[in-house]
Amino acid sequence: MKTVLITGCSTGYGLQTARYFLAQGWNVIATMRSPDKSLLAPTKHLRVLPLDVTKTDSIARAIEAAGPIDVLVNNAGIGLFGAFEATPMSTVREVFETNTFGVMAMCQAVIPQFRERRAGTIVNVTSSATLAPFPLVAAYTASKTAIEGFTASLEHELKFFDVRVKLVEPGYAPTTSFTANGQQRMQGLIPATYEPFAHRVFAGMTDLTAFTLPTDVAEGVWHAANDTSDRLHFAAGADAVALAKLREGGW
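The structure assignment produced for this chain is given below.
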């Protein structure tokens, strides 16, 4: 029986992914900043641990408490909509601390045990915004694109030790709390001069007929975690899959 550690399990993709792996009979270590055991049905295969990926000591405690794992899923992330010129650099750094440096720190924390065992898989969850960047998410897209490059390089680096590294690229998911969770962070980031353009962008997103569900991402992570080939990219969601096909086939 394998064990997976998933970050950011309090909502959305992370929560659904934890449920999916449990349904497949895995041992699941569901981590979140503020643990809430009521989010997942209790079972002997589940442990809920506190983890803030932006804090080194929190990462160290969680990895020690988790013990040996077979798969790390770096799902924890924060969203940000806003005009870049109106976005304070402190907010940009906050996004990168979680979406970029938090992922890197988690990888660095688990690589030693994977390397020593010559086994293990790292799955980094990014975004379809890396496939086709769209407006008003420049900082967010940059934070996720950085992980795309980081993961591609790390995959080459760890292949020597038989450790697999994968990318899951979810599309736009209107049913998650991506926007709601960032409301306070996004206050004032759409100046009046940008409002007509922003309304047009948001209207276009509302009219989308193809989008991503949390279950799509959970399945994508599952396939990536169990893939034994050299495949790196796993698009998740109808819109992301369409974009990935364009990338593979040429624009």
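Interim note for the steering committee: DSSP finds seven helices and seven strands in the chain. The domain at 3-249 is CATH 3.40.50.720 (Rossmann fold).
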